[in-house]
Task: structure prediction
Amino acid sequence: MDEEFAFSEASEKEFMETLERYPTKMAALLPALWIAQNQNGYITPPIMEYIAERLDLSPVHVYSVCEFYTMYHKSPPGRYHIQLCRTLSCVLCKMEDIQGHLESRYGIRAGKKTEDGMFSLTLAECLGSCGTAPVMRVNDVYCENLTIAKVDRIIEACKRGETLEEDPMLAH
Amino acid sequence: MSVKIVSRNFETPNADKIDVYESLGGYKSLEKLFAMKPDDVIEFVKKSGLRGRGGAGFSTGMKWSFVPKNVDKPKYLCVNADEGEPGTFKDRKILQLDPHQMIEGVIICCYAVGIKTAYVYIRGEYVKPQAHLHSAIAEAYKKGYLGKNIKGSGFDLDIHIHRGAGAYICGEETGLIESLEGKKGMPRSKPPYPAVIGVFGCPTVVNNVETLATLPWIMNNGSEAYAGFGTEKSTGTMLFSISGSVERPGVYESPFGVNLWDFIESSTGGVRGGRALKAVIPGGSSAAILTAEETRATNLDYESIAAAGSMVGSGAIMVLSEDDSIVKALQVIARFYSHESCGQCPQCREGTYYISEIMDRVLAGDGKPGDIERILEMCPSMLGQTVCVLADSIAIPAKSYIDKFRPEFESCIKGAAATA
Result:
């Protein structure tokens, strides 16, 4: 059973500030789901009910919105959640080799979480970084110009618990 | 000809910091702006010929002029930073490398239209660009460029960031509005257009990041100076995101009217590994494909690309080499549109799924005679039949890929039949 949910003190402050930005309570729904996900890691049915109550919405409205957007997790993702882009520019730059390597070398499979809970992988549609394809996001960090060697460095760094840094953005 | 307008600060370190931006002439346009009447600003932008850089290419000044003047409701600006058209990655550069240029553009737009609240709808994945924008907005408040009575002009403006959560359709302007209101991003029937009834039932302008980021230069240098670049109907410059099988993919700015292939080759170094060019998708994955021959014969401007049967769109140019499969390309983009259809129109929901399913099968070596015809027969029911253009966005490329590269599809299906 999912546990009861309430915003933490920090989340509550953020939520109240968010409400002030909009003329309607409903407009705060996407931000409220982000605040809840940041606090809890994923969105549970009790969270949806809690947010519905706070925003005077029906739980089914919150549920349908939550389901519509791909970035709200409905179950706990891996400690490192990977989104590997599978759209055209990344395919033209051999993202399938990267996907194959994640699977064969590390057992990280699309749509699955590794048994130790460290990694989960989804294949994402265009991440908006086609100039540095192939690309994946690891949690909120863009990992660009991927090669097999670079993927190895990233995964090993994750296993050591290091914080990943994005490459500096180039002018082109 | 190398001309840099929107990307002129991209190579300057820390141009996202307000002190650096000011030292580069940033926020100077506001003095001129506040000395003008709002209606004159709209005329000024109209005269520049600036067209929306998000994909539709509609006149920016004209769009603003559709907002009713005397209404007792608030008006809003929604900045479309939900960059999602496959192949497009230029707004990410602006947001991260030069966010103040966009903020300055927001001020210009809002003053012209009489808007006091702007929302930047930024795609959920752009965490770092959002952080840069967030800091830039805070700096702009601190220096009095945002907030109450900006620089003593009597004009007030607030900018809020609204983070998306992963849905391509929210880049469609009414999908964006629905999403901002706290709903599923399902596009609205038009009319009414957002200019009359937009977000929260109020008059709303929706402008792309790049469109807004172009405004400070136009204010500083004049409409005529901007219109001096490009062609008569495609004025100025645009950021082109070039990706796929090229040596140096990236964002390159160019005036309109140059030869399409010359521009791609001179900026990126040409096809990767010295291979032959097969095809170019000139305006995002919704655009019809151009053969190598067509690419070499076409100029890069709205009218020339339209005459060649495609579109400039969001300026996302994807290059395919002789080694790249057109069949695979169609399978990938069909899967994309099937995944991203919001599902409210049957023609789109079913049509995208149908094409995607056939293409998955064809690519998996299980194509059947008649599959090509099945796709072509589906396309007309997906053109101009739906609330938004997502269905068109797969029907148009699907038809063009098949029309121009039919032997590739046939041999893929024949190969399947032979091995069956």
Remarks:
- Strands of chain A lie at 80-85, 119-124, 136-138, 141-143.
- The two ends of chain A are 50 Å apart (CA to CA).
- Chain A has two domains: 9-68, 80-166.
- DSSP finds seven helices and four strands in chain A.
